[in-house]
Design a protein that fits this description.
about 160 residues, alpha/beta, Nucleotidyltransferase, domain 5, 6-stranded mixed beta sheet, about 40% helix, nuclease activity, YqgF
Length: about 160
């Protein structure tokens, strides 16, 4: 499941033509946001940062998390931003997906004209946690990087599907 939330409709199929450039991957959580980036050829995703959610900013003010991630996107000169959409194992959208869509709508306005794409993120946090466990990462250190690892999983999965 993927849909562009920003920019014109793609000219070349549901995702449009491949454009060389870095992409940012985002794992939106309740307390933290994991951020990853890929190389310009879209081969490999790597972790960038964990950003604390700003749940206090209301109204027309731009939340600090959106500002920080938008700045990261500018620093890496990204051509697209890929955000994980939490759907159930059966593919249904629930409250978490609605929350993500609302955040993405606000975020997309702030990073326009850079396109923001939603992609199915089923099981990415579980896979990221398992990989960290297998790598011997435990405790507070794991908690601080699991969001980045999930963002890597989201972006890498999206890149791999695009390449096929």
């Amino acid at each position: 499941m993927e849909d562009a939330t920003n920019g014109p409709a793609p000219a070349d199929g549901p995702q449009g033509p491949w454009v060389r450039g870095r992409r940012l991957g985002i794992d939106l959580g309740k307390a933290r946001i994991g951020v990853a980036v890929c190389d310009p050829d879209g081969l490999i995703a790597t972790p960038v940062a964990t950003v604390r959610r700003d749940l206090k900013t209301a109204g027309e003010d731009i939340p600090a998390d959106i500002k920080e991630i938008a700045e990261t996107a500018r620093e890496f000169d990204v051509v697209e931003i890929v955000v994980g959409l939490p759907v159930t194992l059966s593919g249904e959208e629930g409250p978490a997906a609605a929350h993500t869509r609302a955040w993405v709508e606000r975020f997309a306005d702030h990073v326009s004209p850079t396109p923001v794409t939603l992609t199915d993120e089923r099981m990415t946090t579980a896979v990221a946690t398992r990989r960290l466990n297998e790598g011997g990462v435990r405790g507070k250190r794991k908690r601080s990087i699991v969001d980045q690892a999930a963002a890597v999983e989201i972006l890498q999965h999206w890149l791999d599907r695009r390449r096929r």
